[in-house]
């Protein structure tokens, strides 16, 4: 039976690699997979899912005006699975469209995204996925500064200092983010270079 999944995590928790892995596993079973990612995320090549491990995969783009039901109904060959990266950028309306894709078309939708923004508010897409998804799972990663579970995304300015206010979305800017635990979110004073692994 088709289901709507929401797998959430902080930044740098391996979401993109997970999507590439899931797509690969379905494709070797001759299943049709449609991968979608947000136009807002222009950190890497447009129309690609990219993982720090070096794997990448082509993806179709959505923006806030995309009607996802129309997008799917216009496809000559319906996919068996839809995988969505950057699902936090979906609108409420688009999350409801996903439920229609699952319930009417019988297509399983697996969405991946951040739960909270760097100021600890829910993203719109994540808020409604938490409400509408059949299955919710946390992809865990460790805090950049200690060994606790990362729960938050700490934003740093160009001087490497934490930023606690501003616009929700700053993708493509010079600001950086690190996954941190709740305690380090409050206490960290300086950016730390990512681990070299
Ligand atoms: Zn910590």
**Strand segment count:** 11
Helix-strand pattern: EHEEEEHEHEHEEEEH
The overall pLDDT, averaged over residues, is 92
Instruction: State the secondary-structure class.
Output: alpha/beta
| N- to C-terminal distance | 39 Å
Query: What bound compounds does this protein have?
Result: zinc ion
CATH topology-level name of the domain at 4-138: Rossmann fold
Shape type: globular
Helicity, as a percent range: 10-25%
CATH class descriptor name of the domain at 4-138: Alpha Beta
Q: Gyration radius, to the nearest Å? A: 17 Å
Number of helices: 5
What does this structure look like?
By secondary structure, the protein is α/β, with parallel strands linked by helices. The chain has a domain at 4-138: 3-Layer(aba) Sandwich (Rossmann fold). 24% of the residues lie in helices and 24% in strands. The protein is built from 5 helices and 11 strands. The protein has helices at 15-27, 68-73, 92-105, 124-132, 182-187; strands at residues 4-9, 33-38, 48-50, 56-58, 60-62, 81-84, 108-114, 135-138, 152-156, 162-163, 176-180. The site of zinc ion has 8 residues, from helix 5.
């Amino acid at each position: 039976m088709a289901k709507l999944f929401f797998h959430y995590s902080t930044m740098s928790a391996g979401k993109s690699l997970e999507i590439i892995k899931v797509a690969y596993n379905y494709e070797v079973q001759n299943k049709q997979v449609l991968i979608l990612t947000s136009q807002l995320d222009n950190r890497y090549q447009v129309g690609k899912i990219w993982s720090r491990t070096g794997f990448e995969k082509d993806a179709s783009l959505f923006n806030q005006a995309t009607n996802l039901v129309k997008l799917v109904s216009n496809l000559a060959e319906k996919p068996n699975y839809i995988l969505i990266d950057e699902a936090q950028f979906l609108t409420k309306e688009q999350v409801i469209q996903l439920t229609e894709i699952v319930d009417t078309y019988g297509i399983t939708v697996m969405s991946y995204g951040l739960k909270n923004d760097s100021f600890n508010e829910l993203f719109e897409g994540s808020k409604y996925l938490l409400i509408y998804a059949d299955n919710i799972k946390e992809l865990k990663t460790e805090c950049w500064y200690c060994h606790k579970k990362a729960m938050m995304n700490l934003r740093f300015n160009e001087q490497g200092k934490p930023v606690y206010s501003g616009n929700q979305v700053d993708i493509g800017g010079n600001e950086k983010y690190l996954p941190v635990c709740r305690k380090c979110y409050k206490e960290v004073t300086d950016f730390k270079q990512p681990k070299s692994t």
